[in-house]
Give the backbone structure.
Amino acid sequence: MLKNFSEIEEQVRSEKQRTIAVAMAEDSDILIALEKARSKGLAKAILTGEKEKIKSILKQTGADEKNYDIVDSKGEQNSVSEAVSLVRNGAARVLMKGLCSTSVFLKGLLDKESGLRSGKVISHLALFESPNYHKLLMMSDAAINIAPDISEKISILENALFAAHNIGYHNPKVAIISAVEKVNPTGIPSSADAAIIAKMADRGQIKGGIIDGPLAVDNALSLQSCEVKGLKTPVGGEADICIVPNIETGNVFYKLLTILGNAKVAGIIVGAKSPVVLTSRADSEESKYLSIITALKAS
């Protein structure tokens, strides 16, 4: 069990320093976050984008441009292609989205010829440090898969388990989320998907975690809720990972935890050949830094 991001940071500090390739790095928050990681000895970075703009922003943030390799490239597509190529060729271990749009970034990431496809479904994994929960909480998928079918949900779950194991979880507890804890295949199809996935885990078809569902969010995160409802589950009140049924649920989950729940958050993409940092352009410098250290550990 990891209680906070500081524990992830300490683990990264003890490991070999890795290099991050940033696609379109003309963003002050990203450069501040990268400088923080570099100054702590956690990572180096190769920056793609308009070189003079990047140098200007580095100077504004107080960072020394001599500490960074900068690949001069014009426009979103070229910057993304350069960054992906750096990871693909082994010059960097982690890919990070900069100021470019998500659509262009994902197109470069998933390009059949020059991207980082692994043959798996890719998915977004968010990690939260909430003052209202006793440990770190992971959730997937809030950004990539819109309405996953049951096979895609299994892939999303397996991606989350793989990342969790790399982060330090040996047997994470996973809640397959629906609106209810009782199976209602006609009214709430996601409850039936959750039950099938949980039974598959019981029979060893899905390995690497303690998996139960369907569980509503209160069941997953509150033992008291389970007691009131008379629900016996090894995951209740102790979920390390929540797998949500669709992107709408994930999006609301993510924003409520960060805006009303005051949670710190990191966001990465898993399922590609290398870990990928994917944050919103509106995310804070802190969130981008936490996403960097999470991706470094997940690699």
Observations:
- DSSP finds eleven helices and eleven strands in the chain.
